[in-house]
Amino acid sequence: MKKKYRVTYNATVTLSFVLICLAVTLLGILTKGSSTQKFFTTSHSSLKNPLTYLRFITHVFGHSNWNHFIGNVSYLLLLGPMLEEKYGSKELIEVIGVTAVVTGLVNYIFFPHVALCGASGVVFAFILLASFTSFKEGEIPLTFILVAVLFIGQQIYEGIALKDNISNMAHIVGGIVGTVIGFMLNKKELQKE
């Protein structure tokens, strides 16, 4: 008897996040970027405007174009299911939310002339969080050190040496958020044992 295979919605938070990003990106393409600019890009707008506070969170859903979306979503789909299985859906929502708010606030305060959109901060949080998957009490995984040096070092270098339209700040801050949350989650997990 042949076994039947079925498609499963295996990583609820990851897939939902990706689908929201897809919908927002398609809406941005249909509106020629105006919806992305108005609702999914954080910039130095008035604190009297309620959208300013909303965009501290929603900027992670917006992407400037299809290539920007595909680049981020590839990493999200690669890392998200593993992280969701290890840490849980609730914790992954916290990682996404904290990364969104922190990168939005840092961008607003320190880079007032830079508009920020995209999930790359979340991607870097996931990358650094993934390097903690084999964390043990009293140890610092070499994979974490190598990932931190390579990814964060590259972002610092590119932020100084290159003048492209990529927010290296969001990558660095996302990596720091992933590191802090990864350390806290693994410490809590080790205390349960």
- How much of the sequence lies in strands comes to under 5%
Order of helices and strands: HHHHHHHH
Radius of gyration: 18 Å
CATH class term = Mainly Alpha
What is the distance, rounded to the nearest whole angstrom, between the alpha carbons of the first and last residues?
43 Å
**Class from helix and strand fractions:** mainly alpha
CATH superfamily: Rhomboid-like
Going by CATH, the architecture would be: Up-down Bundle
Low-confidence stretches: none
Q: How many domains make up the coordinates? A: 1
Instruction: Give the helix level as a range of percent.
Output: 55-70%
Shape from CA axes?
Answer: globular
Q: How many strands, what sense, and barrel or not for the largest sheet?
A: none
Per CATH, what is the topology? Rhomboid-like fold
Could you give the count of β-strands? 0
Mean pLDDT: 86
Tally of contiguous helical segments: 8
